[in-house]
Design goal:
heterodimer; A: alpha+beta; 4-stranded antiparallel sheet; 4 strands; flat; B: alpha+beta; 8 helices; 12 strands; binds zinc ion; Rpo3/RPB3_RNA_Pol_subunit (chain B); acetylation (chain B)
């Protein structure tokens, strides 16, 4: 009866930002990103990609509550980088990886269908 | 300011491919990507499914909402779905969700006029769009079965009973309702890497070897009838159950076998409901995941607001 509407899980409410950024007040080069209407799918690939970055000292994400449809991504970097730079870099790298994956899959599909 | 790239270059090898099933190997990436693809295939690749039903006449034994629910679960061919609009974003029909950009109309009319039970099936649904029709599961190579194939049964009618309705099918995703999920099952497993310590294995009698081989619940190992050596028949049958390792320890031979999961190799099994081809399902999942990543990029105003904050911060630290 009081269950939230199903679309609440993936439609960003009007007037809400998809991604908001908040600097840590005590530690330099540390910040939290709040990503609305995303879950483990995006949270985990972002975290793992951030771990590949040598300038990232800490990267983690959490889904605070199953009925709060957002994730928090926390990044701490060295002074060589910044949380924002690392975040952008991770997205760019993942994007390129998926481009490559798509091309590989299409090429393999063509090869496989030819061989039959 | 641009950082170094930490991009990976995954490789793919297809093992089996049918319209409704694909099996492939994914290498040179990590479990987060494999799992993201699996999750997107199940819950976020769009398809088309019946979402609204207006019943004109229903004198069948099933009530209206029961029939509406059954209609929703019928898979419809959804090659169009990626290019379609979600009704909630459609500005051509403002909220009505019944225009050609965001919906497909279906009609169903059936009445039983004789003593034999009439099966009302997915084949009785008449679509307004020839590209969006109930999935046909009959085997095209099997002539006889396709003649007889009657689709998915919706309800059975006896003499005098009638069903007449209009249905609207819309684009949606599995996250909203499972009826929109194009995936019957999507699974992946780590590729196992099995090493037998040959010297230690040779110290076992043939009887001990047999006992050890049989301790595995799946047929991963076998004994060569000629050389009587233990060999790996199919590493992928290993379910990471640890039984052979425990058995080796119980036999006083720890380290007889070493089994490790390769952390960058995955074997995927993708089964489609028939709404989209299994190969297309994978490609659509990659596209959707790319779109999701694009949506979580920082917006221009967020970056600007922080730049100002940064200058202020530097000023304060300097002072
Ligand atoms: Zn519309």
């Amino acid at each position: 009866m009081n269950a939230p509407d199903r679309y609440e899980r993936f439609v960003v409410p009007e007037g809400t930002k998809k991604v908001s950024y908040e600097r840590d007040t005590k530690i330099i080069n540390a910040a939290s990103f709040t990503v609305e209407r995303e879950d483990h799918t995006v949270g985990n690939i972002l975290r793992m990609q951030l771990h590949r970055d040598d300038n990232v000292l800490f990267a983690g994400y959490k889904l605070p509550h199953p009925l709060q449809y957002k994730i928090l991504v926390r990044i701490h970097t060295t002074s060589q980088s910044s949380p924002m730079q690392a975040y952008n870099q991770a997205i760019n790298d993942l994007d390129k990886e998926l481009d490559h994956l798509k091309n590989s899959f299409e090429a393999e599909l063509a090869r496989f269908q030819r061989s039959f | 300011m641009d950082g170094v790239s930490y991009q990976r270059f995954p490789r793919v090898k297809i093992r089996e491919l049918r319209d409704d099933c694909a099996k492939f190997e994914l290498r040179d990436t990590d479990a987060s990507i494999a799992n993201a693809l699996r999750r997107v295939m199940i819950a976020e690749v769009p398809t088309i499914a019946i979402d609204l039903v207006e019943i004109e006449v229903n004198s069948s034994v099933l009530n209206d909402e029961f029939i509406a629910h059954r209609l929703g679960l019928i898979p419809l061919t959804s090659e169009r779905a990626m290019g379609m609009r979600f009704s909630r974003d459609c500005d051509a029909c403002d909220g009505d969700g019944q225009c050609e950009y965001c919906s497909v109309e279906f009609h169903l009319r059936a009445k039983c006029r004789d003593d034999q039970t009439l099966d009302v099936t997915s084949k009785d649904l008449v679509s307004s769009d020839h590209s969006v029709v109930p999935v046909d599961y009959s085997d095209p190579s099997d002539y006889e079965s396709s003649e007889q194939s009657r689709g998915i049964i919706i309800v059975k009618l006896r003499r005098g009973q009638e069903l007449r309705l209009r249905a609207i099918a819309r684009k949606g995703i599995g996250k909203d309702h499972a009826k929109w999920s194009p995936a019957a099952t999507v699974t992946f497993m780590y590729e196992p890497d099995i090493h037998i310590n040959e010297d230690m294995m040779e110290s076992l009698t043939i009887e001990e070897k047999k006992q050890w081989v049989e301790s595995s619940p799946t047929k991963v190992f076998d004994i060569d009838p000629v050389t009587q050596q233990v060999k790996v028949v199919d590493p992928e049958l290993y379910t990471y159950d640890d039984e052979v390792i425990k058995k080796a320890e119980a036999m006083g031979k720890p380290g007889l076998v070493e089994i490790r999961a390769k952390e960058d190799s995955f074997i995927f099994t993708v089964e489609s409901t028939g709404a989209i081809k299994a190969s297309q399902l994978v490609l659509n999942a990659i596209d959707i995941l790319k779109q999701k990543l694009d949506a979580v990029r920082l917006s221009e105003d967020t970056v600007e607001a922080d730049d100002q904050f940064g200058e202020l911060g530097a000023h304060m630290r300097g002072g």
